[in-house]
Amino acid sequence: MLDKIERIKIDIPEQELMDLINYLGHFVSWNFVFDLEREDAPHFFDIINDNESVTDAGLGVMTFTSYQTDGVRPDYKLNLFGEKIFEYCKEKSNNFKIKRVSRIYWNLYSRSSVCKFHVDNPTPNKYASILYNIHENDGGTAFTFEDKNIIIKAEKSEAVIFPSNVLHKGVGPTKNKWRFSLNIVVELEDGQSSSFIQ
Q1: What CA–CA distance (Å, rounded) separates 14 from 115?
Q2: What pTM did the predictor assign?
Q3: Distance CA 78, CA 98 (A)
Q4: pLDDT band per the 50, 70, 90 thresholds, residue 159
């Protein structure tokens, strides 16, 4: 499974990352994320109180898609940063032939956030996901593949690239209060090696 995951360190100035975190905290209208398996969203009263049986899957906001869907909140500043990460990964990736951005999505996890395993796009050999860790924290991303589970800890300014049809989930922090991350789904060039992505 590890050969399906590529990690790229991206050199972003510290002040730029601090400005991004401040912007995400002050100017973004976040929504609670709920797993698609739930037939209805739980009451917010149950989520915000200490009811261990009712959890959220973090907060999220989608700022760009190349396809028609509800709930997109375009944000020039955030999309510009997402484009920067996309371009860097497109140039530096050794394992993926990245063509264009399909979706830009921002995540915010708290200590109480509990996510379920999911895929970003079920189509094999056509899409990859770039998970960019904005800051150092003790959360990360869990992957499950062929009955094996691994967790990649969040490392500041690192991009983790993997096939979008691989099961994964965000892992909230336990020591830190919050975890910000950026998820970019990208379309791959035609003819991406099917031996690499299953």
Answers
A1: 29
A2: 0.90
A3: 20
A4: very high
